[in-house]
Amino acid sequence: MTWLQLKIETTKADAPQYEALLEEVGAAAVLMEDSADQPLLEPPPGAQPLWDATRVVGIFTVDSEVDAVVEFMEARLGHPLPSHRVEVLEDKDWVRAWMDHYHPMCFGERLWVVPSWTPPPRPDAINLLLDPGLAFGTGTHPTTALCLEWLDKLDLKDKVVVDYGCGSGILAVAALLLGAKEAYCVDLDPQALTATRNNAEHNQVGDRVHVFSPETMPAVIADVVVANILAGPLAMLAPTLAGFTRPGGEIALSGIIQPQVAELREVYGQWFDMDGLAVKEEDWCRLSGRRR
Questions:
Q1: What does pTM read for this prediction?
Q2: Which end of the chain has the lower number of beta carbons within 10 A, N or C?
Q3: Class of 2-101 per CATH?
């Protein structure tokens, strides 16, 4: 199969916003490349290396309207994209690019996310097997990493988890591998629900994952709720997510940048005692709290 690449020349500081927009607009995957032949030391486990001059590459199916993608991104940004171009990528090169880019990553003390072509660095750890696919969420984006690290710190034994905006299902599967009893996964995108089922089966927790669209999600009361979306939807979903969380239950919100933190803290403060704020990779944040 042939793919299209939208290559955007940018900086280390701005690369995460272009990555997030490409994922939002439906890129099958997003890669980061060195744009200036800059040496880069091996990063610590779980860290995402970026170069001063970074090229952000969005991968799209050959029938995608890339001009419309660019128009959408420029409307969201409020200014034209920096230097960019579209190139054709053959399937064999696409697979090689992902395999070169995607390596085992550690989140917290116990959890590793490991692609199928690589042996686990720590066989005795909790290893979540996940290959890049069409749904968002492989652990490489800071917002996903923040949620995985939060889950790793919790005592999830026999807990019920809601993963709202599940993407690939990585957070739900991680919670189950970390001891949760069952996970309810919600997403607007049917592809995300399919990916979640497949990844759950691949990690042998398929019988404990339940997937729903927002309209079909039952009135579950969960011990842990995690939502890695964007600030606008998170604000609108506050009453819904509060309704899913039992008194004393934990919630984590991600997909937030620093200027959005105060407003979301106030919104969720109607139901939760908001405590932690973690920041990673430029301006991305995670809020967490406990249901009153």
A1: 0.69
A2: N
A3: alpha beta
